[in-house]
Every structure is written in C-alpha cells, then in structure tokens.
C-alpha cells in the first residue's frame, strides 16, 4: 500500500457536465475525508466518512455534490452540472479512527477545471 | 467563528538558516494542532503535531511551539534546505474528525 490514491489527476470539463472523482485510501484507515483547495488557500473541509457512513457534510457541499463510500473502502465524489466556481483541487485524505492521532494522509488530489 | 490564520503569506530564508513560520488560531477549544507541508502538485504532507497539554514538541529538524495564552503556534525549521521550499499550513482540530486549515505560508529557500 503506497498511500492515498486519487484519480484522475486532472479533469477538464465543460460547464454543465457531470464529473466523478475516485479516492482509494490507505487500506487500514477507516476514516476518509474530502477537501477542496483553491489557489493560494488552505484546504476546506467538504465531507467525512467513517467506514461507509457519511457523518458530516460541509455547507460548502451544495446539492450538486454527492459523495459515497459504498463498502467502506474507496470513495467517489460526484459533481453534477458543474460550474466555473467548482474549479479547484479536490483532495482526499484518510486516517485511523483508533488512538488520538488525527493527522491525515492526503492524496495528490484531482485538479478540476471547468471551462 | 473558527479560524486559523497565518501572520505572513511568504517567507524567504537563506539556505542553512533557521526558519520560523507563525500561525494564530482563534478557537480556544482546539486541542490538537498540526503542521502540513505542501509541495507544488502534491497534497499536504504531515510534518509534526502537538496537543494542547504540551507547549513544545521536537521532530527531525523541526520544532513546534504552542502558546495557548495568546493562541499562537509556530513551526521552526533548523538548517533550512532547498527541499524545504513549499507552502506550510497550520491546522487545528477540536478533538473530532474535522481539521481546519489556515491559508498557508510559502517558504522560499535561497541558495
């Protein structure tokens, strides 16, 4: 296991199209997070899973966004009817629930450009 | 509301010098703080963390200092190297699952 894997690395889409991103976390990590990062800013929390349960969604996650983690392993983030404001880096991270270490392991992200 | 911020957006240091990156936080309930390093085209990478019951923690060439009285966090990098050039984020956690990131400081290391 080489870390958190995200696919695709880059996605260019036309406004109004739907896109889906995939995240494969570290296998023994049962917590999975999605963050969004725009240029020059820190990552912003979008949503969080513990195993297959989605436990919180940010106000940033409009109705056009949906995330799933069907078997508690990989996760997908879908954006419907994309808008130019959705252009950003979408980061996935994972961590262990046990213990008190809340440090995350991040993937390299999917950079979305909406034209 | 909750916020994590940074005093300086950019920091330029000479190779071999020590670097100090500062961060202010506003949520007094935060009990866990983390520094991340982000290189171009990559996701943030965990550097070092500290709990609120500590005021100093050392790693390899890095030290994090926490001053809860003034809600201030700093990252010290000893003998800064060109490979340390990156954006550094401080982040805070209130004991749950959500980590809040600041805007970042870009560190430039001059050879």
Describe the protein in words:
Chain A is mainly beta. Helix content of chain A is 0%, strand content 49%. Chain A is built from no helices and eleven strands. Chain A has strands at residues 5-7, 10-13, 19-24, 31-37, 44-50, 53-57, 65-68, 75-79, 88-95, 105-106, 110-114. Chain B is globular and about 40 Å long. By secondary structure, chain B is an all-beta fold. The A-B interface holds A 4, 31, 33, 35, 40-45, 48, 50, 55-56, 91, 93, 100-109 and B 4, 32, 34, 36, 41-46, 49, 51, 89, 91, 93, 97-104.
Features:
heterodimer; A: 115 residues; mainly beta; 7-stranded mixed β-sheet; 4-stranded antiparallel β-sheet; 49% strand; globular; B: 111 residues; 6-stranded mixed β-sheet; 5-stranded antiparallel β-sheet; 11 strands; 55% strand
Please outline what is shown here.
The complex is a heterodimer of chains A (115) and B (111). Chain A is mainly beta and 115 residues long. Chain A is built from no helices and eleven strands.
Q: Tally of extended strands of chain B? A: 11
Name the helicity range of chain B.
Answer: under 10%
Shape of chain B: globular
Total helical segments of chain B? 0
* Radius of gyration of chain A from CA coordinates: 13 Å
Question: If you average the pLDDT of chain B, what whole number results?
Answer: 89
Which percent band covers the strand fraction of chain A? over 45%
CA(first)-CA(last) distance of chain A = 35 Å
Beta fraction of chain B: over 45%
Largest sheet of chain A: 7 strands, mixed
Runs of chain B in which pLDDT lies below 50 for 5 or more consecutive residues are: none
What is the rounded distance between the termini of chain B?
41 Å
Number of helices of chain A: 0
Which spans of chain A have pLDDT < 50 for at least 5 consecutive residues? none
What is the radius of gyration of chain B?
13 Å
Major protein interface = A-B, 26 and 23 residues
**DSSP summary, beta strand count of chain A:** 11
Overall SS class of chain A: mainly beta
